[in-house]
Prior knowledge:
Layout: E1 10-17, H1 19-32, E2 36-38, H2 52-74, H3 91-145, H4 161-166, E3 170-177, H5 181-192, E4 197-202, E5 207-208, E6 215-216, E7 218-225, H6 228-240, E8 244-246, H7 252-308, E9 312-313, E10 320-327, H8 331-345, E11 352-356, H9 373-382, H10 393-407, H11 411-426, H12 428-434, H13 439-446, H14 448-465, H15 486-490, H16 499-502, H17 522-555, H18 560-590, H19 608-617, H20 635-667, H21 712-736, H22 739-757, H23 768-809, H24 826-835
Helix pairs in contact: 1-7, 1-8, 2-3, 2-7, 3-7, 5-6, 9-10, 10-14, 10-22, 10-23, 11-14, 11-23, 17-18, 17-21, 17-22, 18-20, 18-21, 20-21, 22-23
Amino acid sequence: MGAMFRSEEMALCQLFIQPEAAYTSVSELGEAGTVQFRDLNAEVNAFQRKFVNEVRRCDEMERKLRYIEAEVHKDKVPVPPVKDMPRAPNPREIIDLEAHLEKTENEILELSHNAINLKQNYLELTELRHVLEKTEAFFAAQEEIGMDSLTKSLIADETGQQAATRGRLGFVAGVVQRERVPAFERMLWRISRGNVFLRRAELDKPLEDPNTGNEIYKTVFVAFFQGEQLKSRIKKVCSGFHASLYPCPPSNTERQDMVKGVRTRLEDLNMVLNQTRDHRQRVLVSVAKELASWSIMVRKMKAIYHTLNLFNMDVTKKCLIGECWVPTADLPNVQKALADGSNACGSSIPSFLNCIETDEVPPTFNRTNRFTRGFQNLIDAYGVASYRECNPALYTTITFPFLFAVMFGDLGHGCIMALFGAWMVIKEVSLSAKKSNNEIWNIFFAGRYIILLMGCFSMYTGLVYNDIFSKSMNIFGSSWFVPYDDYTLEHSKAFSLDPKASYIDTPYFIGIDPIWQTAENKIIFLNSYKMKLSIIFGVLHMIFGVCMSVVNYNFFKRRYSIILEFLPQVIFLCLLFLYMVFMMFFKWVAYSTLSEDPAYRQGCAPSVLILFINMMLFSSTEPEDDCKEFMFEGQGTIQRVFVLVALCCIPVMLLGKPLYLLSAKKKHVKPEQSNGNVNQGIELQEQTDISEVQPKPQAKSSGGHDHDDEPFSEIMIHQGIHTIEYVLSTISHTASYLRLWALSLAHAELSEVLWNMVLTFGLKDHNYIGAIKLYVAFFFWAFFTLAILVMMEGLSAFLHTLRLHWVEFMSKFYAGLGYIFQPFCFKTILEQEDEE
């Protein structure tokens, strides 16, 4: 947890790497994932960088891998996951991998082309077989009805051989796609003016397209005509409609012989297709075993060359120079990675790392684990913390689920949420391995620890509220008893309990007494109770946020802001709103029905809200008889002093810091000018021992709040804006915490309505019909409980809690003007590409 208190210290380092060791060294750094490289060639075009040809080679290998992967998925061959993550291949292995991918691609391409040609031949033979079989049925039907149109003359008055030849009908046969048949028939009718006799029959089974593998439905047709001119027109129409024409002998014997020959060829071709398919399957299965490893190796290789393009070559062209941000705690790991990279390639000259001083603001890096990552993401969604700024995520791990539970307090609903979170936490290894593409599920799974804590805290607040599915539990016995006799109870619709006669003067052991569940003034009581709780938690939360600013002021050595900003802010907040919290506690403790002083008995307790309003307006309210206006002696004087002191804090917040900075600038003496150090500006310094000297780059400001270097007028404007914002926000933010009361009350009332209007419906009958009703009612009650009370109300409470942290809490000390540390890490790169 110590690492979460503020972001880690960063160092700007220069890397000096020999060209022959550059690839392996960057590969080791990518495996370590601890450095963020800077682009030293920002002005150089991407196509003019040193390793652009290597990047193109990687792109070409990725293209081949995409083609191979598409073919593997096309044949539904399973790709086994990678058990051991392969490392980036060395330069010699790259050549072998490239040649192997080239050979594999060519082999699959050849197999695909051969399969397409064989399937095309199989399709044509299948269509020919269907044409011969269907036309046989056409001719047989003609012979049965005596329509010997092929041998009879069309012109009755012409005789002789010439007339018979002119009157003889010709025909063409083929197949056409089924959806084109209507248009095909209309076109034949138009070109022949009705002189074409068309017979067609649909194929029962679909055929397979050899190119796409999709199913296509076709129809066999035979077109009878007269004359060679009409025949050429019909063939042109068939070509236009992509109809396939096949030869069909007019003789029945010839057709039978041809059908037998086609069936024999189909059987032989089918055997060749099966053998080709089996061979292709064997090739793809062997490729699929290595496909994931090849893909990872190529992506790592490409990432290495992209990173090397960020390096700069020195003037002698014998050394690559790179700059990177490194957490100082990881500097030994970086040096070890550089040494391993040099040893891997057998370089005689070691690579080394040199830490340099800089005024640039480093990136922000908060080291997290599985538990804290979700909370850190909530903070980063508002804004990445400025460098070394106090990190709110550490405190959010407790305050976030607690404030959520104040609004979501129900033992039953909290138990459901906690069980769901616990299931995701217990099964997190197997669930994370599935890598779902469902965005909603990924959000839930990323926040599994947040959900678990929110459920556990909601169970606790539900126990305090004594609320489980809108019902109370009488575990420890009520502190109230009924003093009336049976006759009074039977003849009274309602009766009141006087604390003097019905209360045992010992509160319920924990939480709300269960007797309030049956009281008519339950809502009035809970309203007052939860409203005060929300103000108490809100004021304490805001005071804690203001106090956190002291940590930033002290760390960034702006201790004058502790006196000129923090003290007036915390005094202003405490004298007004913490005093209001004090009045709530004093009222709970001092006033009682058993008090001997009449001024401190029931009915005389003044309203805290009225007292606070009178305090701010310097007014008063006449008390009732035997009662006092104030809670204790001298309260009026104390309140006037508090308000005056709080008002005096405003000019201190407004003018204190600007005037201090103005006086400090006048006392500032410029340093003596010098000609500089002899070694100034030389990059290649003696290697720094990181165990002895570590640079400590500091941000120019305390988390982005500082404007010390600006003119006095700008400082006054900024300070005026901050002062007005703070004074007004103390009021608005305190009122904003009332959402804790509003959502808690709404959740409890909605749960009670759902119980009384849905589940009670199944509890009215005591026979077998009541059992059926109970099953139905319980189904709807459970469904609405999960959908509305747990999910929708839970999401609403989550968003309101997020707002309370972002606006009301973090605005007191958090700037969030940093930029995230994005190290060069193979694991992160592969995960991002898989998500895309």
